[in-house]
Design brief:
By secondary structure, the protein is α+β, with helices and mostly antiparallel strands. 37% of the residues lie in helices and 21% in strands. It is elongated and about 90 Å long.
Amino acid sequence: MIQKIKGTFDIMPEEIPTWRFIEETARTVATRYGFDEIRTPTFEATELFRRGVGDTTDVVQKEMYTFLDRGNEGRSITLRPEGTASIARAIIEHGRCSDAMPLKLFYIISCFRCEAPQAGRSREFYQFGTELYGTETPAADATSIAVADALLRELGLPNIKLHINSIGCPECRPNYRAALVEYFSAHEAELCPTCQARLKTNPLRILDCKSPICHKIAEGAPRTLDHLCPACADHHKGLTEALDALGITYEVDTAIVRGLDYYTRTVFEFIAEGIGAQSTVCGGGRYDGLTEQIGGPRLPGIGFAMGITRLIMAMEAAGITVPGKQPPKLYIASLGAAASMKALQLAEALRNDGLYVECDLVGRSLKAQMKYANKIGADYTLILGDNEIETGRAMLRSMKDSAQEEIALEELAEKLK
């Protein structure tokens, strides 16, 4: 038997109501804050992610699905591993850098990374995210965080904690990088092989290593906040003041650095308790140099992405359920070929009136049809036979209390509404 590819998953009909609830809530919240939806291609030129996400990141080095384009020999293309670089490319390509600012966009997309599958981490995954371009103010950072906070609250998620940090800018980052290299070089032999390589290429990523030994060593590393230039320090202070003004509780966590090279200054994560190791349900930050890195004009930005699967895990852990599929308003049972055709016509007319109606499609007996109507939870049943077709009247039965009344078939829509 052919099975799904490892690291992917099927979303079955009974699961769809939860997905739709999250997606519709996300769209509602984003729209309330003035964000417009954008959709970009599933695959892009590989160079976009190499330049945007960063050559030294795990995403680019280990996790991207990259292949040669059969339609353009020699061109390398990649299934998108994240959304921000694609949207930055779209903004530049469509000339939106000259639009009135701020430019506020949101997306709901699938992404692809070749990772070891585990709870909350898959090779194809789904994200809701926002991008706010054209301003460097701390108020923009606070607004981006507020959107995420509002969505998590409207989903009903308890025990979600916001962690924030600042990782500086190109002006102050070199000094901090030097301090990290000096500190971690004294512990190089103790670091995991991955972090030994990061020491030479991207020492900031050592702070985010999940190895218990590396994590313990990182606890004594220099803090980002102690190496910020005056402008970055002022920006971070402005963010905390804005969050205080909005009443959004946060924790300053200097271990947060995020995994992509385009981040500058503000980085943040929302952490959910009780869902295991993959507890980050939302991550984001500022990326003021991204558009320049991929060949466009400078356009400062701030945004986040939420993993929908992890949101579902957090909702399940909190005992949050959403209404399932609505049952049919009416099931039309039929006796004989003529009645079966009449049931099909009547069901179609009622559906055109906006009602959810079912009728027999598999040739069940009348008894089996009534059992099926009960199984699918129909509110009412109607039995059609030759007599009902001739008179234009039939018995409408409530499945809740078995009450019955005779009704003209042309009055069904009005009665059921």
